[in-house]
Amino acid sequence: MKRPLKLLPIGNRKAGGTGDLVPQARLSGPIPWVIAIMVMLTVIAAAGGLALRKLASVAENELSGGVTIQIVEGRPEVRDSQVRQAVQLLSALPGVTNVAAVPQQEVDALVEPWLGEETAEADIPVPALIDARLSGPVTRNRLEDLRAALRGKVPSARVDAQSTWLKPVFGALSSLQLLALALVLLLGLATISAVLLATRSALGSNRETIEIVHLLGGTDSQIARIYQRSTAVAATEGGVAGFAAAVIVVILLGQQFANLGAGMISGGSLGWIEWLLLALVPVAGVALATITARLTVLRSLARML
Protein backbone atom coordinates (compact mmCIF):
# COMPACT_ATOMS: atom_id res chain seq x y z
CA MET A 1 0.00 0.00 0.00
CA LYS A 2 1.45 3.36 -1.02
CA ARG A 3 2.00 5.97 1.66
CA PRO A 4 0.55 9.45 1.05
CA LEU A 5 2.96 12.01 -0.32
CA LYS A 6 4.35 14.59 2.12
CA LEU A 7 4.51 17.88 0.31
CA LEU A 8 7.10 19.92 2.19
CA PRO A 9 10.39 18.02 2.47
CA ILE A 10 10.57 16.87 -1.14
CA GLY A 11 12.30 19.17 -3.62
CA ASN A 12 15.06 21.77 -3.49
CA ARG A 13 16.92 21.79 -0.20
CA LYS A 14 18.78 24.82 1.09
CA ALA A 15 21.31 25.14 3.85
CA GLY A 16 19.62 25.17 7.22
CA GLY A 17 16.16 24.23 5.97
CA THR A 18 14.04 22.49 3.39
CA GLY A 19 12.56 23.66 0.10
CA ASP A 20 9.19 23.04 -1.48
CA LEU A 21 8.55 20.87 -4.47
CA VAL A 22 7.47 24.00 -6.34
CA PRO A 23 9.63 27.02 -5.42
CA GLN A 24 7.41 29.69 -3.86
CA ALA A 25 8.62 32.95 -5.37
CA ARG A 26 5.52 34.88 -4.26
CA LEU A 27 5.62 38.52 -5.45
CA SER A 28 9.05 38.07 -7.03
CA GLY A 29 7.58 35.68 -9.59
CA PRO A 30 5.65 36.63 -12.72
CA ILE A 31 2.18 35.36 -11.80
CA PRO A 32 1.30 37.94 -9.08
CA TRP A 33 2.36 40.82 -11.31
CA VAL A 34 0.54 39.44 -14.34
CA ILE A 35 -2.64 38.86 -12.32
CA ALA A 36 -2.37 42.34 -10.78
CA ILE A 37 -2.11 44.00 -14.18
CA MET A 38 -4.91 41.92 -15.67
CA VAL A 39 -7.23 42.53 -12.72
CA MET A 40 -6.54 46.26 -12.76
CA LEU A 41 -7.26 46.56 -16.48
CA THR A 42 -10.33 44.33 -16.22
CA VAL A 43 -11.80 46.33 -13.34
CA ILE A 44 -11.22 49.61 -15.18
CA ALA A 45 -12.80 48.25 -18.37
CA ALA A 46 -15.73 46.77 -16.45
CA ALA A 47 -16.23 50.00 -14.51
CA GLY A 48 -16.35 51.95 -17.77
CA GLY A 49 -18.89 49.54 -19.24
CA LEU A 50 -21.10 49.66 -16.12
CA ALA A 51 -20.91 53.47 -16.00
CA LEU A 52 -21.90 53.73 -19.67
CA ARG A 53 -24.76 51.28 -19.15
CA LYS A 54 -26.08 53.26 -16.19
CA LEU A 55 -25.64 56.54 -18.04
CA ALA A 56 -27.62 55.29 -21.02
CA SER A 57 -30.36 53.89 -18.78
CA VAL A 58 -30.75 57.13 -16.83
CA ALA A 59 -30.77 59.23 -20.00
CA GLU A 60 -33.38 57.02 -21.68
CA ASN A 61 -35.63 57.14 -18.61
CA GLU A 62 -35.40 60.92 -18.42
CA LEU A 63 -36.05 61.46 -22.13
CA SER A 64 -38.55 58.65 -22.79
CA GLY A 65 -41.60 60.90 -22.36
CA GLY A 66 -40.00 64.23 -23.26
CA VAL A 67 -41.13 66.39 -26.18
CA THR A 68 -39.64 69.69 -27.37
CA ILE A 69 -41.71 72.25 -29.29
CA GLN A 70 -39.87 74.94 -31.23
CA ILE A 71 -41.68 78.14 -32.19
CA VAL A 72 -39.76 79.28 -35.26
CA GLU A 73 -40.91 82.86 -35.72
CA GLY A 74 -38.70 85.88 -36.40
CA ARG A 75 -41.10 88.51 -35.00
CA PRO A 76 -40.74 88.53 -31.18
CA GLU A 77 -44.34 89.65 -30.48
CA VAL A 78 -45.84 86.94 -32.72
CA ARG A 79 -43.48 84.36 -31.30
CA ASP A 80 -44.42 85.17 -27.69
CA SER A 81 -48.12 85.04 -28.56
CA GLN A 82 -47.77 81.62 -30.19
CA VAL A 83 -45.81 80.35 -27.18
CA ARG A 84 -48.68 81.25 -24.87
CA GLN A 85 -51.23 79.62 -27.21
CA ALA A 86 -49.10 76.48 -27.52
CA VAL A 87 -48.78 76.15 -23.75
CA GLN A 88 -52.56 76.47 -23.33
CA LEU A 89 -53.32 73.94 -26.08
CA LEU A 90 -50.81 71.39 -24.84
CA SER A 91 -51.93 71.70 -21.23
CA ALA A 92 -55.49 70.81 -22.26
CA LEU A 93 -54.51 67.71 -24.25
CA PRO A 94 -54.96 64.26 -22.63
CA GLY A 95 -51.75 62.43 -21.83
CA VAL A 96 -49.69 65.61 -21.40
CA THR A 97 -48.51 65.75 -17.79
CA ASN A 98 -46.32 68.84 -17.81
CA VAL A 99 -45.78 71.84 -20.09
CA ALA A 100 -43.32 74.67 -19.49
CA ALA A 101 -41.95 77.40 -21.75
CA VAL A 102 -38.19 77.77 -21.58
CA PRO A 103 -37.25 81.37 -20.66
CA GLN A 104 -35.82 83.19 -23.63
CA GLN A 105 -32.73 84.14 -21.62
CA GLU A 106 -31.88 80.43 -21.28
CA VAL A 107 -32.41 79.88 -25.00
CA ASP A 108 -30.10 82.81 -25.80
CA ALA A 109 -27.51 81.34 -23.44
CA LEU A 110 -27.70 78.01 -25.28
CA VAL A 111 -26.98 79.56 -28.68
CA GLU A 112 -24.51 82.14 -27.39
CA PRO A 113 -21.39 80.04 -28.15
CA TRP A 114 -22.41 79.94 -31.83
CA LEU A 115 -24.18 83.27 -32.38
CA GLY A 116 -22.31 85.50 -29.95
CA GLU A 117 -23.39 87.41 -26.88
CA GLU A 118 -25.59 90.04 -28.54
CA THR A 119 -28.12 87.86 -30.33
CA ALA A 120 -31.07 90.12 -29.50
CA GLU A 121 -29.31 93.33 -30.51
CA ALA A 122 -28.02 91.72 -33.70
CA ASP A 123 -31.64 90.99 -34.70
CA ILE A 124 -30.94 87.28 -35.13
CA PRO A 125 -34.21 85.29 -34.90
CA VAL A 126 -33.91 82.67 -32.17
CA PRO A 127 -36.79 80.16 -31.83
CA ALA A 128 -38.66 79.81 -28.57
CA LEU A 129 -38.65 76.43 -26.83
CA ILE A 130 -41.36 74.60 -24.90
CA ASP A 131 -40.69 71.46 -22.88
CA ALA A 132 -43.56 68.98 -22.54
CA ARG A 133 -43.76 65.56 -20.90
CA LEU A 134 -46.14 62.81 -21.86
CA SER A 135 -47.47 60.03 -19.66
CA GLY A 136 -45.73 57.18 -21.46
CA PRO A 137 -43.35 56.67 -24.35
CA VAL A 138 -43.31 59.10 -27.24
CA THR A 139 -44.47 57.31 -30.38
CA ARG A 140 -44.82 58.55 -33.93
CA ASN A 141 -48.61 58.61 -33.65
CA ARG A 142 -48.50 60.71 -30.49
CA LEU A 143 -46.16 63.18 -32.16
CA GLU A 144 -48.53 63.46 -35.13
CA ASP A 145 -51.43 64.13 -32.75
CA LEU A 146 -49.49 66.94 -31.09
CA ARG A 147 -48.58 68.46 -34.44
CA ALA A 148 -52.19 68.29 -35.59
CA ALA A 149 -53.40 69.99 -32.40
CA LEU A 150 -50.92 72.86 -32.82
CA ARG A 151 -51.11 73.24 -36.59
CA GLY A 152 -54.18 75.50 -36.67
CA LYS A 153 -53.34 78.14 -34.04
CA VAL A 154 -49.55 77.73 -33.83
CA PRO A 155 -48.37 77.32 -37.45
CA SER A 156 -44.71 77.95 -36.53
CA ALA A 157 -44.54 75.03 -34.08
CA ARG A 158 -42.17 72.12 -34.71
CA VAL A 159 -42.62 69.08 -32.47
CA ASP A 160 -39.79 66.61 -31.87
CA ALA A 161 -39.16 63.85 -29.36
CA GLN A 162 -36.19 64.62 -27.15
CA SER A 163 -34.90 61.05 -27.43
CA THR A 164 -34.51 61.32 -31.22
CA TRP A 165 -31.87 64.01 -30.82
CA LEU A 166 -29.70 61.65 -28.78
CA LYS A 167 -30.05 58.53 -30.91
CA PRO A 168 -26.47 58.87 -32.23
CA VAL A 169 -25.27 59.30 -28.64
CA PHE A 170 -27.13 56.19 -27.49
CA GLY A 171 -25.67 54.28 -30.43
CA ALA A 172 -22.16 55.35 -29.47
CA LEU A 173 -22.77 54.36 -25.83
CA SER A 174 -23.93 50.90 -26.92
CA SER A 175 -20.80 50.47 -29.04
CA LEU A 176 -18.58 51.49 -26.13
CA GLN A 177 -20.36 49.01 -23.85
CA LEU A 178 -19.68 46.22 -26.34
CA LEU A 179 -16.06 47.33 -26.54
CA ALA A 180 -15.74 47.20 -22.74
CA LEU A 181 -17.24 43.68 -22.71
CA ALA A 182 -14.83 42.58 -25.43
CA LEU A 183 -11.89 43.96 -23.44
CA VAL A 184 -13.00 42.06 -20.33
CA LEU A 185 -13.20 38.81 -22.30
CA LEU A 186 -9.81 39.38 -23.96
CA LEU A 187 -8.19 40.13 -20.61
CA GLY A 188 -9.69 36.94 -19.22
CA LEU A 189 -8.17 34.96 -22.10
CA ALA A 190 -4.84 36.71 -21.57
CA THR A 191 -4.92 35.73 -17.89
CA ILE A 192 -5.56 32.09 -18.79
CA SER A 193 -2.71 32.13 -21.30
CA ALA A 194 -0.27 33.68 -18.82
CA VAL A 195 -1.09 31.15 -16.10
CA LEU A 196 -0.91 28.29 -18.58
CA LEU A 197 2.55 29.32 -19.82
CA ALA A 198 3.86 29.93 -16.30
CA THR A 199 2.58 26.56 -15.10
CA ARG A 200 4.09 24.71 -18.03
CA SER A 201 7.40 26.46 -17.43
CA ALA A 202 7.35 25.45 -13.75
CA LEU A 203 6.53 21.87 -14.71
CA GLY A 204 9.40 21.76 -17.17
CA SER A 205 11.92 23.09 -14.65
CA ASN A 206 10.78 20.56 -12.02
CA ARG A 207 10.42 17.56 -14.33
CA GLU A 208 13.07 15.43 -12.62
CA THR A 209 11.65 16.16 -9.17
CA ILE A 210 8.15 15.24 -10.35
CA GLU A 211 9.43 11.92 -11.71
CA ILE A 212 11.02 11.14 -8.32
CA VAL A 213 7.78 12.04 -6.56
CA HIS A 214 5.91 9.61 -8.81
CA LEU A 215 8.40 6.88 -7.95
CA LEU A 216 7.82 7.55 -4.27
CA GLY A 217 4.10 7.03 -4.70
CA GLY A 218 2.88 10.56 -5.41
CA THR A 219 -0.17 10.93 -7.60
CA ASP A 220 -0.96 13.45 -10.32
CA SER A 221 -3.68 14.93 -8.14
CA GLN A 222 -1.24 15.56 -5.27
CA ILE A 223 1.24 17.26 -7.56
CA ALA A 224 -1.51 19.33 -9.17
CA ARG A 225 -2.64 20.39 -5.69
CA ILE A 226 0.81 21.84 -5.01
CA TYR A 227 0.75 23.96 -8.16
CA GLN A 228 -2.88 24.85 -7.55
CA ARG A 229 -2.11 26.13 -4.05
CA SER A 230 0.92 28.06 -5.24
CA THR A 231 -1.05 29.70 -8.06
CA ALA A 232 -3.96 30.53 -5.76
CA VAL A 233 -1.69 32.34 -3.29
CA ALA A 234 0.09 34.25 -6.05
CA ALA A 235 -3.18 35.13 -7.80
CA THR A 236 -4.73 36.35 -4.53
CA GLU A 237 -1.79 38.65 -3.88
CA GLY A 238 -1.91 39.98 -7.42
CA GLY A 239 -5.70 40.28 -7.42
CA VAL A 240 -5.77 42.35 -4.23
CA ALA A 241 -3.01 44.66 -5.48
CA GLY A 242 -4.61 45.04 -8.91
CA PHE A 243 -8.07 45.72 -7.49
CA ALA A 244 -6.72 48.35 -5.09
CA ALA A 245 -4.92 50.14 -7.94
CA ALA A 246 -8.02 49.96 -10.15
CA VAL A 247 -10.23 51.43 -7.41
CA ILE A 248 -7.90 54.41 -7.11
CA VAL A 249 -7.93 54.96 -10.88
CA VAL A 250 -11.73 54.64 -11.14
CA ILE A 251 -12.31 57.07 -8.25
CA LEU A 252 -9.91 59.63 -9.74
CA LEU A 253 -11.56 59.36 -13.16
CA GLY A 254 -15.01 59.67 -11.57
CA GLN A 255 -13.96 62.88 -9.85
CA GLN A 256 -12.65 64.29 -13.11
CA PHE A 257 -15.95 63.61 -14.89
CA ALA A 258 -17.95 64.94 -11.92
CA ASN A 259 -16.06 68.25 -12.14
CA LEU A 260 -17.45 68.74 -15.66
CA GLY A 261 -20.80 69.64 -14.09
CA ALA A 262 -22.83 67.99 -16.86
CA GLY A 263 -26.10 66.51 -15.64
CA MET A 264 -26.07 63.66 -18.15
CA ILE A 265 -22.56 62.57 -17.19
CA SER A 266 -23.37 62.62 -13.47
CA GLY A 267 -26.01 59.96 -14.12
CA GLY A 268 -23.25 57.45 -14.86
CA SER A 269 -21.79 57.45 -11.34
CA LEU A 270 -21.28 53.97 -9.91
CA GLY A 271 -23.51 52.77 -7.09
CA TRP A 272 -23.00 50.04 -4.51
CA ILE A 273 -24.35 47.38 -6.89
CA GLU A 274 -21.75 48.28 -9.53
CA TRP A 275 -18.96 48.26 -6.94
CA LEU A 276 -20.10 44.86 -5.72
CA LEU A 277 -19.89 43.53 -9.27
CA LEU A 278 -16.42 45.02 -9.65
CA ALA A 279 -15.32 43.36 -6.40
CA LEU A 280 -16.13 40.00 -7.99
CA VAL A 281 -13.48 40.57 -10.68
CA PRO A 282 -10.43 39.66 -8.52
CA VAL A 283 -12.37 36.71 -7.06
CA ALA A 284 -13.09 35.47 -10.56
CA GLY A 285 -9.45 36.07 -11.52
CA VAL A 286 -8.17 33.95 -8.65
CA ALA A 287 -10.64 31.16 -9.44
CA LEU A 288 -9.76 31.29 -13.13
CA ALA A 289 -6.01 31.16 -12.48
CA THR A 290 -6.35 28.31 -9.96
CA ILE A 291 -8.53 26.18 -12.21
CA THR A 292 -6.26 26.84 -15.19
CA ALA A 293 -3.17 25.81 -13.21
CA ARG A 294 -4.77 22.58 -12.01
CA LEU A 295 -6.07 21.54 -15.42
CA THR A 296 -2.76 22.42 -17.06
CA VAL A 297 -0.79 20.32 -14.57
CA LEU A 298 -3.08 17.32 -14.86
CA ARG A 299 -3.03 17.42 -18.64
CA SER A 300 0.73 17.90 -18.82
CA LEU A 301 1.42 15.09 -16.36
CA ALA A 302 -0.81 12.76 -18.38
CA ARG A 303 1.39 13.43 -21.41
CA MET A 304 4.66 13.46 -19.50
CA LEU A 305 4.43 10.00 -17.93
From TrEMBL:
Keywords: Cell cycle, Cell division, Membrane, Transmembrane, Transmembrane helix. One of its GO terms (biological process) is cell division. The keyword Cell cycle applies. InterPro entries: FtsX. It comes from the Bacteria. The chain crosses the membrane at residues 31-52, 176-198, 232-255, 275-297. This is Cell division protein. It comes from Novosphingobium aquae.
